[in-house]
Each structure stands twice: as structure tokens, then as C-alpha cells.
Amino acid sequence: MPIGKSLPSVRPVSTGRAGGVQPTPPPEPRVRGAARRAAGGRRAELLAPFVLVAPAVLILVLLRLWPLLLGVNFSFTGDGERDGAAVGFDNYVDLFHDPLFRGALRNVGLLVLLLPVAVAIPGIIATFIYLRVPGHRFYRSVYFFPAVLSPVIVGAIFNLLLSFDGPVNSVLGAVGIGPVDWLGDPDVAMFAVVGVHIWATFGMALVVFLAGFATLDGTLLDAARVDGASLGQVIRHVIIPSLTRTIQFVFVTTMIGMLTSMFGLLYVMTTGGPEGSTYLPEYYIWIQQGQMNRPALASAASTVLFVIMLVVGLLQLKLLRRSGKVD
Fold first, then answer.
1. Who is most buried in 62, 94, 111, 288, counting CB within 10 A?
2. Angle between helices 295-322 and 99-130 (to 10 degrees)
3. Top-confidence residue, 113 or 178
């Protein structure tokens, strides 16, 4: 080897006691701990959604699904002398032979037909509030006020207003229209109760619509105004397509409210009359359970009401999808 040229450095191989090559030492504890923490963090990230949803699912199962299943099972048992005995579909046969229950189902059909009106009213009012018509802040407070009133209070107020010799008929008489028996005429009473319910509850739908308007892109409205679009065209081509999810939510919640939250008004204003013309399934259920002591028949009526709500809700979503209002 030429002089002056250094030898390459060689790292000495450590040997054990027997003179063999010593194995590579394991990773340091700090590295292993970091790997375990990273794996644990990934597992926690995957499990976090399930942990957060678990309480709500547990509540739904224990307080909704389980009682529903018990009610369906109970609807196939008997009342009175056959208390607890399996009776098959006898309760359902009795239901559909009861003229009061058939009338309640006809009223459900009426509610479904009036549902678009119940949704359109708060939607139109929310549109005018969003467009900042003069006095919109005052109107927002006034329109929401009925939503905080108890149905019992609302029913008592409108009992006075709609009585045969009440203020409403006095106003009608002043303009040359004869008095209307709002709560005593079987052909009018249900419309009167539904109208009062819409007045008392549309404040919540109004708030939902206003929340939906908060997500609306204002540049779309500006572009429509620049193009000379009328108010109707703006509502049809800009506002409705932009609020599809909000409209879907309001449709479903309003339907549920009309089918399950009118008991207070019915009890105070008409008690199901006149001639059973204002019966709804929920009122029929209360009569059978609380006054007639027929809990199995009431369970059958509850099951029918659940099926009706499920079918009507699915049909609404299907119609909204076909009309292009829901993705």
C-alpha cells in the first residue's frame, strides 16, 4: 500500500462472551412508546363517532324502539274477559269496523292534504322577513310568539273567539256574512281546529326556515335581481332549490306535529265532536286507553298510527325527490 494513504475506518464488531456476533439491540423504549401511542390514537379516532352516538342510540332503543315493540306485541292480546290472551288480528278488525276510528283516518287524509299549506305559510313569511320588508324585526317576534303558548291556553282563547256569538262572527256579521258555527258544525270544526294548530305552531317552522336562509348564497339573489327576475321567479328558481334540505325537514316535522301534537287543542276546543268529526288517531287512543279501559285496542291504534306516519313520510320524500326538491 502506498505510503501516506490512510486505511479505511472499520467499525469493530462487538462480540459476546462466547466470541460470536452480538445481535442488534432492540429499539429504545421511547420509540416503542411513541408507536403504541400513535396506534392508540388511531383506534380512539375510529371509535370516537361510535362513543358519541352511543348515548343517543341507547335512549332511542330504550325509550322508543323497545316500547314500540312492546306495544305492537300487546296489540295482539285481548281486553276485558280476554285480558292477556292472544287474539291475533281481532283488535285491528275491531278498529276498522269502528266508525270513530274510520273518521279519524279520514281526518288524517285531510291533514295530509293541508300539509303543503302548513309548510308554505311559514316559508312565505320567512322569505319576506329575509328580504327585509319594513318592520321585519317586529314581525319575526310576533309570529314566533304563539309557539311559546300552551295548547290549552290557545284552545281556550280560540274557544272564545270562535264561539257562535264571539268576536269573529261579529266581524263577519258587520260585513254582511252570516254567523258560522265554527266548532259546532261537523263540516267546519276540523278545519277550524287545524287552522288554529297551524297558527299556534308555525313559529317553529319559521325559525327553521330563517336558519336555512342564513346558508343561502346572497350572490344568487343579486344575480336574479340584475337579470330582472320577479319575486315569484326568485322564489321558484333561487330560494326553493337552495332550501331543499330545509323544506324536507319542515315537511317531515310538520307532518309529525299535525298527527301527534293536536291532542291538547282537540280536548279543549271540541273534545272530539261534534259527532266525532274532529277525532284523530291520538285522541282515539286516549279515549280507548283512558276512558274505555281497552289498552290492547289502544295499542293496535298506536301501531296503525305509526305505520301511517311511516308511509306518509316515505311518500313525501319520494314525491320531493321526483319534483327535484331533494337530492
1. 288
2. 40
3. 113
Alpha-carbon gap, residue 123 to 247, rounded angstroms: 8
How many Cβ atoms are within 10 Å of 75's Cβ, its own excluded?
A: 23
How far, in Å, are 112, 119, 318 from residue 244 at the CA level?
20, 13, 13
Q: What is the pLDDT of residues 50-108, one digit of tens each?
A: 888 888 889 988 988 898 899 899 999 988 888 888 998 999 999 999 999 999 999 99
Question: Which residue type occupies 185?
Answer: D
Single-letter code of the amino acid located at 220: L
State how far the Cα of 211 lies from the Cα of 224, in Å rounded to an integer. 21
- Per DSSP, the three-state class of 83 is strand
For residue 274, whether the previous peptide bond is cis, meaning omega lies within 30 degrees of 0, is: yes
**CATH fold of 94-322, please?**
MetI-like fold (1.10.3720)
DSSP 122: H
CA–CA distance, 4 with 1 (Å, rounded to integer)? 9
Polymer length of the chain: 327
Percentage of the chain modeled with pLDDT above 70: 85
Rounded (10°) angle between helices 66-74 and 295-322:
120
Give Cα 150 distance to the centre of its chain: 20
Cβ partners under 8 Å of residue 214, min gap 6: none
Separation of alpha carbons 302 and 28, rounded Å: 66
pLDDT digits 0-9 by tens, 310-319:
888 788 777 7
List all residues 6 or more positions away from 225 whose beta carbon is below 8 Å from its beta carbon.
234
Please choose, from the candidates 89, 90, 126, 322, the residue with its C-alpha nearest in 3D space to the C-alpha of residue 208.
126
C-alpha cell at 224: 336574479
**213 pLDDT higher than 60:** yes
**Rounded to whole angstroms, how far apart are CA atoms 200 and 184?**
21
Residue 86 three-state SS: strand
- Please calculate the CA angle 270-102-179 and round it to the nearest 5 degrees: 35
